[in-house]
Amino acid sequence: MAPEKLTKRVVDALKAPEPSQVGVKVREKFLWDRDLRGFGVQVMPSGLKSFVIQYRTPEGRNRRSVIGRYGLMTVEEARVLAHEKLVLVSKGTDPVAEEAIAAGQQTVAEVCDWYLAEAEAGRILGRRRRPIKASTLAMDKSRIEVHIKPLLGRKRVSSLKLGDIEAMQADIAAGKTSKPRVGGRGGATTGGDGVAARTISTLHSIFEHAARLGKIDINPAKGVRRLAGAPRDRRLSRSEIERLGKALGVAAEGGEHPRGLAAIRFLLLTGFRRMEGLGLQRAWLDEEEGAIHFPETKSGAQVRVIGTVAVDLLRNQPKTQSPFFFPADWGDGHFIGVVRVLDRICQKAGLADVTPHTLRHTFASVAGDLGFSELTIAALLGHSARGVTQRYVHIDEALRLAADRVAGEIVDILEIAGGLSRARKLQKNRVDESNRQSTVASYSDAS
Questions:
Q1: Which of 188, 240, 423, 444 has its CA 20 to 30 A from that of 134?
Q2: Could you tell me the sign of the dihedral formed by the alpha carbons of 319, 321, 325, 329, in that order?
Q3: What number is the average pLDDT over the span 89-95?
Q4: Would you call 383 exposed, middle or buried from its count of C-beta atoms within 10 A (0-12, 13-18, 19+)?
Q5: pLDDT digits (tens, 9 = 90+) for 413-424
Q6: Of the candidates 189, 191, 201, 196, the residue with the CA atom closest to the CA atom of residue 136
């Protein structure tokens, strides 16, 4: 409807909306004031008329709120109140949100939206007292939209009980919010204990930030009991690594995605997390040092040593305009389809329950089988440093030898069916000789 100045005569003349055809749901209609932008009247199908204001919050979200019912409030009274609230909006305030805070009427969805807006602006600090990373926010937003809002979004935070939160956890674990993958891209929404527990952790963290910054009085999730997820201890045995190697060779000859195959090998040879490997940029590789200089990881900026065979694998990736070693098939991002490629390879190899994390665990297990210490394995995997010694372990020559030894051992197993290439044999001999000399030197120093 075209805006016009709202008066008693104009509001009285407004008719309730009627359906344009049978079976169509009737929605309310609005008439906006010509003189005071954002002030209007809403007419429901029942004929009920209410004054409303509509505006954009400082975070850029549209908000519409009823300020009074016509009949209990005159047009001029509503205009004065609307003007006061819209003046606050012009000064960067969200009057509806402020009133909700004062009255303790904020919903879970509103607090979640506040958290995302504040975190995206860098005003909420996460671990290590630094702004929350974009990748973490993306995961938080996914859990909010997929699980938290559908189950608890409309509930008032002030009335929320631990039982409500733990009931949400049970519903997520049971698959109440699960959805299948739609189309050729994007993932399925799953349930399970792990997904449920991580969602509860996200909600607890959001409430903790909100309570600390005065958005809510207390954290209603404090004391919630999270489900214990099953430990992810799946690793590939030596024979399974051999089967994987054979399947990789067959898949390469059969036209499987070359970047997917290379990414699988790289993850297995380095123990990198899935997104660390796929998002690896060429500028981060120091070939002479045999290391990756990550500007940011789950544990902060890191230097991660990798084996010579892993460096060679990266060097052999086709050069493109992309900054990534494993670029996407289209667009400017990196390759993301490694899970589906791995599923197809494992199906050919007759391997079950194998994920990119399984490759990481297998790398660590091979390192353990070779006798390396927990400290060395933790450094190879990029676990967060727990002391001064571990923060400096990446510069130790012994760690470079360990990375070479573990990656070389895995390549030996992968290629055992076809025998090692002459170059691989020479490389293995060099590593073994270097290890022998290191052992002799250590023995001499001890003597």
A1: 188
A2: negative
A3: 89
A4: middle
A5: 998 644 444 444
A6: 201
C-alpha 446, offset from chain centre: 49
- CATH code that applies to domain 8-100: 3.30.160.390
DSSP 77-120: HHHHHHHHHHHHHHTT--HHHHHHHHHT--BHHHHHHHHHHHHH
* 3-class SS string, 283-310: HHEECCCCEEEECCCCCCCEEEECCHHH
Three-state secondary structure of 372-396:
CCHHHHHHHHCCCCCCHHHHHHHHC
pLDDT, residue 167, reads 95
Which fold would CATH assign to domain 238-446?
hpI Integrase; Chain A (1.10.443)
Report the mean per-residue pLDDT for the chain. 85
119, 185, 289, 311 from 284: Cα distances, Å: 27, 29, 11, 12
pLDDT band at 363 (very low <50, low <70, confident <90, very high): very high
pTM: 0.61
Other CB atoms within 10 A of residue 116 CB: 19
Identity at 432, one-letter amino acid code: D
Reference 41, options 87, 49, 422, 165; nearest CA is 49
Give how far Cα 133 sits from Cα of 111, 137, 146, 294, Å: 19, 6, 20, 14
More confident residue, 389 or 331: 331
Q: What is the pLDDT of residue 69?
A: 92
Q: Which amino acid is at 235?
A: R
Beta-strand relationship, 302-305 and 285-286: unpaired
Q: Is 39 helix (H, G, I), strand (E, B) or coil?
A: strand
- CA–CA separation, 395 and 183 (whole Å): 47
b/e 152-183 (16+ beta carbons within 10 angstroms → b): bbebebeebeeebbbebbebbbeeebeeeeee
Q: Are 190 and 251 in contact (CB under 8 A)?
A: no
* Domain spans, the chain: 8-100, 108-212, 238-446
Cβ partners under 8 Å of residue 2, min gap 6: none
Q: What CA–CA distance (Å, rounded) separates 195 from 143? A: 9
**Residue 202 Cα distances to 92, 112, 178, 209, 348, angstroms:** 28, 10, 18, 11, 37
What is 108-212's CATH number? 1.10.150
* Whether the Cβ atoms of residue 170 and residue 193 lie closer than 8 Å to each other: no
Residue entry with tokens 């676990």: 383
The pLDDT score that the predictor gives to residue 440 is: 43
